[in-house]
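Retry 2 of 3 after timeout on previous attempt. Resubmitting structure tokens to design endpoint.
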């Protein structure tokens, strides 16, 4: 296990600046995402700094990819793939009698 601050691993929680660097955006953008509730984060203490759990950031990034794929599928044509947009998996939907 690496000791905190060794530089080998950032750790479980990221600062807003760390998350901004990972996402290649400015700190204000990450702050806006947190305050809007789009990016899950916790506050250390009642008025302390925000921290983003690394796993939550990875999930959020994956959701952004899924959203982009759905928008792309929708924009590809007049009749988008309903299964892809709905998030349903083929074979799991039963026909209605």
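Retry 2 succeeded. Sequence:
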């Amino acid at each position: 296990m690496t000791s905190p601050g060794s530089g080998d691993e950032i750790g479980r929680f990221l600062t807003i600046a760390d998350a901004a660097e990972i996402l290649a955006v400015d700190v204000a953008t990450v702050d806006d995402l947190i305050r809007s509730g789009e990016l899950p984060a916790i506050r250390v203490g009642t008025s302390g700094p925000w921290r983003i759990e690394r796993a939550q950031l990875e999930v959020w990034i994956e959701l952004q990819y899924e959203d982009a794929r759905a928008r792309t599928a929708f924009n590809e044509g007049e009749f988008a793939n309903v299964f892809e947009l709905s998030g349903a998996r083929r074979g799991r939907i039963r026909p209605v009698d």
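Attempt log closed. The chain has a mean pLDDT of 80.
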